[in-house]
Design brief:
about 100 residues; alpha+beta; 4 strands; globular; Arc Repressor Mutant, subunit A
């Protein structure tokens, strides 16, 4: 659990620009999920591209963090190989889908 001295790694501390970017990533992630069939999943790169355009690669980790936030809120699941995985330990390629 984060403390005042140790903020949650997925939440920007005291940086309004980062908070705005996170909000855009969260919104893009939700919009992409909403635009797909209920059984579909998306890649974090789709979220990064939607927000970052040509600079999308810089947003890959922030896009994964957005997915972790949605998982924490119960609004998404992260999968690898079609299986739900713990976002805190997932390494490598992931997919994001609605909870089932």
């Amino acid at each position: 659990m984060p403390t005042a001295e140790q903020p949650d790694a997925d939440q920007p501390a005291g940086n309004p620009a980062a908070r705005g970017e996170d909000a855009r990533l969260d919104e893009a992630l939700q919009q992409l999920l909403d635009a797909r069939p209920a059984t579909a999943s998306i890649c974090p790169s789709e979220v990064a591209r939607a927000v970052g355009g040509e600079e999308w690669r810089e947003l890959m980790e922030p896009a994964r963090a957005a997915a972790r936030r949605l998982v924490a809120e119960g609004r998404a699941e992260i999968t690898q190989g079609g299986r739900v995985v713990d976002p805190a330990t997932a390494r490598g390629p992931i997919r994001i889908r609605r909870p089932r």
